[in-house]
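#random but structural
TW: two for the price of one
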Amino acid sequence: MTTLTIAFITAVITSTGLRLWLTRRQMRAVGQHRNTVPSAFAATVTLEDHQKAADYTLARGRIAQLDTILGTGVLIALTLGGGLNLIEKLWQPVTLATPWHGVAVIASLLCLTTLIDLPLSWFRSFRIEARFGFNRMTQKMFYVDALKGLLLGALLGLPLIWMVLSLMNSAGSLWWIYAWAVWLSFSLIISWAWPIFIAPLFNKFTPLKDAALAERISQLLNRCHFSSAGVFVMDGSSRSTHGNAYFTGLGRNKRIVFFDTLVDRLSPTEIEAVLAHELGHYSLHHIRKGLILSSILSLLGFAVLGYLTSWPGFYSALGVAQPSMHAALLLFILVSGPFLFFFTPIGAAWSRKHEFEADTFAAKHANAQELIKALIKLYRDNASTLTPDSVHSRFYDSHPPALERIAFLEKLYSSNAAI
């Protein structure tokens, strides 16, 4: 057993154990506080709603534990268990040119993992989400969405895989730089095209029709010096009762999108405050910083992959008998997960920092008290737990815990009121 094999097994066991431990901590913390609404929310969240959020979190935690165990089993089966070797053998009788053979192997693996994930995805939608009144998808819609996603992945992903494998096989020792440039260009094109060409394949987007709300939003956009391709309402209610708002697109294709469920539940001033928070992310260059960081990390990843492709021990240590460029790419994608998992708290902390900064921005350009009201409604309506485990939250959560965030906003409101 090589050093890399031992390191891989150690990373898999440790990351899996840590995931299960963190989930268990979360479930225990939520269960212990199930019968008591935190005092800060006593006037705005009923005990019934609080208990619903607790039960929802516990149900999601149980399925997350199963997902973790299943994912670990699949990873081991594909690598040390010989799964990749088996897929490779199945394609050997078929005569394909070098890049296309690799594309076929990778596509087969992606289809296999999609099929493995499908039952859990179905269970989440039609058992957990439906049990708590969130799911509105029909069985037909679920499978049509899955098929659309698979076809879209093939249409967009297979040409990208072909280009990367072609470069890996023919562009010399610096192939990884060219492959990174292709990947980065592809990512930017998809981000630009998503709101106009891709997202409408799954949802309907209509311009905001409420004239008074549109005028309020227009004034906010002017105050924040922000221009976009428009404000749209998405038919999120066709699939779920969860509410949300987000930015999408790049350049002139930037769009502001509200779920119709959010528009129905929040007042105009609350919607304005939520939008001010989202504008904060853009105005404070959080999106740009994220793109830059992602570009740098992906470049480092391609550099590491460039080194690993020329190391014969990389393949045998992870259960692959025949070295190849597509095997290296697959192994790198599969094996990197357990190692990168330990960096999750760093990304979560960075994201929470940006959330606080966006809240500060929102408090300057809208009413912090209205944002507090909107968040409480969203916590309640989305059954978000108000009592997460602190360790679990610090490790995973991209947003500050409810109590911490509301306290921060109240402090901002008091400071602004005193000015």
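TW: number two ↓
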Amino acid sequence: MNAPDTSQASVPLKALSEDFVRKATDRELRVGIVGLGYVGLPLAEAFVREGLAVVGFDIDATKVKVLDEGRSYIKHIPDERISAMYGSGKFLATTDFNNLRQVDAVLICVPTPLGAHREPDLSFVIATTETIARHVQVGQLIALESTTYPGTSEEILQPILERSGLRAGVDFGLAYSPEREDPGNAEYGTSSIPKVVGASSDYERAMANALYGTIVPTVPVPNLRTAEAVKLTENIFRAVNIALVNELKVVYGAMDIDVWEVIEAAKTKPFGYMAFYPGPGLGGHCIPIDPFYLTWKARAYGLNTRFIELAGEINSNMPGHVIDRLAEAMNEKLGLAMRGAKVLIIGLAYKKNVDDMRESPALEFIDKLRERGMEVEYYDPYIPIAPSIREHPEVEGMQSIEWNEEALGKFDVALIATDHDNVDYAPLLRAVDLVVDTRNAIKQKIEKVVRA
């Protein structure tokens, strides 16, 4: 391991933090962001907009090349915004992690998936932290943004970083500030969502507050574990409530009650109710995954998270429920069996108006429908060609069909998995005899449209 610069190691963190805060106030900080994906890239843009210099690090040389050319690889971030970042003279993307020595703060924005048995996979966080430990400098702030279980920063990151010979809270600062990115949300972006900030000491918390305070209001909490718990709580809240309405959808459907009409009426109550909406299953990197980080950690304390696990079970069963509903509708309305029939899946992305396929229910639909002998194609204006997906290699290379009545007319049934706003459903309704809608994308009551 390369030795860090310890020339200032005798300087108390109090003095180092005061200098850090001053540099933040004067917009003199140089920020390093590791991981230039759906979290890291918008975060880099937010700092650049406020006049701070940013060095973006990624192990993917292709991403760095695309950015250097002034282009974006994320659909909802147009090329013009990347060009503006470079035009400011404040942004550099690189695969050279030696540049970590040249920044004042290092923000870790790497994936935290689940393993095969729903256990936390911190391999990306650990590898990144080991790299940072080889370059950490006195007076730097290291902040984790990736969602994880309470205790990760203290139990995993701190020991790795301290192999450098420097000490957290003494020679460098350690903080946790969970990402709250919502890709494709036009109302709330990185620069308009308050940042929760947790650290073990007042000095470290002051550093993190000063850094993030340059772009958004901050919400300081007493320690690292509390900040880590905040993010899990936010996502568990969503997962549990989505499971509730998914269960209601099944129950009300058996009673011939439209759950969407129930929700629209219920949300007129101005207190005591918050609208959540059913769907084909959970997708994205956060909601299907994050709750199980707490489930795993709770076992270390001899505790069970029955509510979370029940919600996960309900949400995981939704794709199967949709497939069963599609089979019933095909038999009742078309007199067709699934084997040999042609189905169009509308939307590969896990949510509307993005090109993010992570954990998308549509991928499971493709597998299940092919298992039942159906010919499957898809349409998604945000994903013209399906990229490589580790868990679903059979999807790679599939191409979105053309959106016209001639192309649509060859399908027996269409399954709306994602309700992108820029899709005109009129040609679909004219060309296809049965549409199974999991998102209430088609609001009007039409005989050929079946809710699922």
